[in-house]
Amino acid sequence: WRLGHTYQHHGIVVRTEACASSCQHQALRCCSVVHFRPPAGGERGCIEVTSLAQFAEGREVCRVRYEVQDAEFYLRRAGCVSTERPDRWPLVTFRALG
Predict the structure, then answer these.
(1) How confident is residue 97, by pLDDT bands cut at 50, 70 and 90?
(2) Which strand (E) or helix (H) includes residue 92?
(3) pLDDT (tens digit per residue) in 41-69
(4) Residues 6+ apart with CB under 8 A from 45
């Protein structure tokens, strides 16, 4: 997720491939993210696949942590941790693209 003005914009990484430490993550082959692109400039919002760099828009990107203890869940900002076990990646990817 990345921090928006008043919300956290979530994306789902659907592809990762080994890349050099100097990689800027601008290509879909190393880090692809599925997210909802909100409406802007007269264009309708849609689900899109984008590079990690495009998703981040120059901001820091954080990873949601799963299976945290209740105390951490209540102390953290909503949407950045979960007490639940994550679903398996094929199911998550299928839902994100559907």
Answers:
(1) confident
(2) helix 89-97
(3) 998 988 899 998 998 888 888 888 888 89
(4) 36, 37, 38, 39
